[in-house]
Amino acid sequence: MLRMNKKGILPVITLVFTLLCLSAFLFFSPEAMDNQKDVVGATTIELMNLDFKSKADAIYDEQIIKQKFSENFVKLAENGGYYEQSKTDDGYVYWKRDKTNCFPNVELLKTNLIKYINSSEKASYDFDLIFDKTKIVINLKNNKEYIVEKDNYKINMKPKNGFAISYNYNIDSLMNNVWKVERIVNLCEDDRSCWVDNADFVWKNEDKLYKVELTSDKIVDAFGEKEVILKAAIDFEELNPLEGEVFECLV
């Protein structure tokens, strides 16, 4: 075992003590103290600025969403429940072409509503979109990362501020209309006489292409009422893949 006598230990202790004193001098010297104060002060201010920015973004987004949600919801209905989908020349969205069914459902509506909301935001959010019998409730939590990077520090902040908005609307009034059309399509296919006898909604047809318009209640917000009208097309004409005709459900 290596042993160090007292004469050997003393230089080591002296060296360590000297290094500690030098480090302390450098850290606590007026210049070093000023640098530390500058960094601490700057980061505190930057954190405050980022916090203010995140809250300002949330306030802005809340007002924009309040103003545009009903408009977007009506637009979504007129688009047959789809954010993006093939249409007839006069603007009816295909719910069926040949053997491909694209009837919208609640999850599709949620997905596309979030897309519409996201298109106007300054921040980004975790969404909780709730449909109940009388209301649509949106809970949003800011998940945007706010970053400031300087020469001697970098700040990453993820705020958790957010907000909730609710609208008076019974989603069943819309979904019941989707189910009405789907029932007639399954029952009658392209038999016009069957449609005449059984369909209890507005429709018209051009040979094997059927178009429907279904008033689906009104959505109410702080700016008043807006009528929700579904517009959809059902095309029983067989596609010809040899001519390059293809169709698929989009979202």
Structural class: alpha+beta
Radius of gyration: 32 Å
| Overall average residue pLDDT | 84
Alpha-carbon distance between the two ends: 76 Å
Largest sheet: 5 strands, mixed
Strand content range = 25-35%
Order of helices and strands: HHEEHEEEEEHHEEE
Helix proportion: 40-55%
Report the uncertain regions: 19-37
Shape: elongated
Q: What is the number of strand segments?
A: 10
Number of helices, where a helix is a run of at least 4 consecutive DSSP H or I residues: 5
Query: Strand sequence of the main sheet, in spatial order?
Result: 2-1-10-9-8
Supply the number of structural domains: 1
Give an account of the 3D structure.
The longest helix is centred in the N-terminal third of the chain and has 49 residues, at 30-78. This protein starts with 5 loop residues before the first helix and ends in a 16-residue tail after the last strand. The protein has helices at residues 6-28, 30-78, 106-118, 171-188, 192-198; strands at residues 93-97, 100-101, 125-131, 135-142, 146-149, 154-157, 162-168, 202-206, 209-221, 224-235. It has 5 helices and 10 strands. The chain has one domain (9-243). It has a 5-stranded mixed beta sheet with strand order 2-1-10-9-8.
Layout of SSEs?
Layout (H helix, E strand, L loop, with lengths): L5 H23 L1 H49 L14 E5 L2 E2 L4 H13 L6 E7 L3 E8 L3 E4 L4 E4 L4 E7 L2 H18 L3 H7 L3 E5 L2 E13 L2 E12 L16
Parallel strand pairs: 1-10
Antiparallel strand pairs: 1-2, 3-4, 4-7, 5-6, 8-9, 9-10
Helix pairs in contact: 2-3
Brief summary of the model shown:
The protein has helices at 6-28, 30-78, 106-118, 171-188, 192-198, and strands at 93-97, 100-101, 125-131, 135-142, 146-149, 154-157, 162-168, 202-206, 209-221, 224-235.
